[in-house]
Amino acid sequence: MSRLPFYLIVGLLMVLGIGTSLHRHYQMEVPWTPGEQRQVWEVEAIVDFTALGDPARVELALPSHQRGYRILTENTASPGYGLSFLQDETGRRAQWSIRSATGSQQLYYSVRLLVTDDQRKRQIVRPPLRDISWERPYDTAAAQVIERAWMRSADPYTFTRELIRDFSDDLQGENARLLLTQFERTPLLVRLLNQAGVHAREVSGLLLEDGRRRQTLTSWIMVFEDEENWALFDPRTAEQGQPDNLLLWEAGGRAVLEVQGGTNSRVTFSMLSRSQPAAAAVRSQLADDTLLNFSIHSLPLEEQALFQTILLIPIGALVVVFLRILVGIKTSGTFMPVLIALAFIQTTLPTGLIGFLLVVSVGLVIRNYLSYLNLLLVARVSAVIITVIAIISIFSVLSYRVGLNAGLTITFFPMIILAWTIERMSILWEEEGPKQVLIQGGGSLITAVLAYLAMNNPWIRHITFNFLGVQLIIMALILLLGNYTGYRLLELRRFKPVTED
C-alpha cells in the first residue's frame, strides 16, 4: 500500500501549523516568548471651543493603522453629545453633535497605540493637481522660484528638497521672501508643487515625546512620485522620510478640527509611553477572530483559563508517544501519565509525587484484601473508587489539621484513573509478580514527571495558548512517530553480549 497519502497528510498538517503560527506572529505580532515587552503610547486629544447656544457639531480627524504604529483601543468622553465614527477616502473622523450648548466646552478622545516593526507604507490615494492662480506680483515670484528649483532637480523628490531649501533662512532670495509675506510656509510649498505638476498635499502629524502635555500637530508635506509611492518632507528642514516618533494624525488633506456652532476652537495633545507584556498589548487584536486569526482570546476569561490547561494535553501525549515508541518505557495505562501530570501542575511536583505514592500504596493494600472476596469486576472497581475517595479525604483532613495546606491539593488527582491504575497494578502483581509492577509503575511515574516538566514550561504554555497551529504540528509529529517500527532504545541492551564478543 502506498505511503504517499500518509506523508501528504503529515506535510499538510506541518505546513498549516507553521503557516498559521507565522501569520499570527508577523501579522498579529503575537510574541514567541512570554516575557517579551512592547512599547505602548497613550495619546489624549482635548478639543476646546466656546459654544454659542445653538446646535453644535464637531469633527476631529483620527489616526489610522500606519507604519510603526497599530491602534489597540480608542475611548471618548463627551457628556451629552452624540458621537459617530466616520470613514471615507480621506481617512477616519470622529463627529460629536448636540442640539444646544453654551459656553466653554471640552471633548476628549484617547487612543492606545502599539509600537510595531511593520515598515510597510500606508496606502493613500494620490490627490489631484489643483489649479493655481496668483495675484501680481506673486505670480512672477512663484514662477521664478519654481524655475530655479526645477533646474537643480531630477524628479519630484529632489525638486521638493530644492524648493524647500530655497525658502530656508540661509538661502532665501527676494522672491521667496516676497511670497512668505503673503502665505504660510507649508500651504505655499504645496501650491508651488502643484503648479509645477507635482502631486502633493499638506498633512498633520504628532511628534511623540514621553510625558509631554498640551502639544499641537506639526505640518508636513506628502509628495507623490506616482500613484502608489510617496514620501514625507519636513517643510522647515527639507529632510525626507518619516521620523520614527512621528504619528500621522491627518493624511487626507482635510482640516484636523472642524467646529460648527462654536468659536475659539483648538485641539491639544498629551502623551505617555508605557512598556507592558506583548501578549497583553495585542490582546484586543486577538479577540477579533477571523479565519486566519483563529484564537480563543474572544472567549470569557474563565473559559480561556480552562483551555490554557486543555491545550497542554497534546504536549503530554507527544511525550508519552516518544517515550513508549522510541525509548520503550512501559506505563500502566496508555495516557494515564498525562492525567497525572495535569494533577502535578495543580499540586506542584513534590506534593503530587508524595500524594500519588501514598494513594497508590494504600490502595494496593486495600485492593489486595478485596481480591480475597472474589467480587465481580464492576463491583471490585467501584469499591476501589470509593476507597480512593476515602483515602484522599483522610489525607486532606490530616494534612490540614497538622498545618500542611499543600496536602489539600491532592484532591486534584483524577480519582477514576487512580482507581483503574490500582486495579491494573494489582492484577499485574497477581499475574507477573511485583517486578513488573515496579517497572510499569516506575515508568508511569517517570513519564508523568517528564510530561509535567514539558507541560509546565512557561514558554510551552505561552506557545500552545497563543498559537493554535502548534496543535497541527504536534499531530504531524505524533503521526510520524506512530509510523516507526524499528528497535526501541531500551531493547538495544539485548545486543550487549554481541558487542562484548
From TrEMBL:
Residues 23-181 form the Inactive transglutaminase fused to 7 transmembrane helices domain. The chain crosses the membrane at residues 305-327, 339-366, 372-395, 402-422, 437-455, 467-487. Coiled coil: none annotated. Residues 255-498 form the 7 transmembrane helices usually fused to an inactive transglutaminase domain. Keywords: Membrane, Transmembrane, Transmembrane helix. It holds the Pfam family Transglut_i_TM. This is Inactive transglutaminase family protein. It comes from Billgrantia antri.
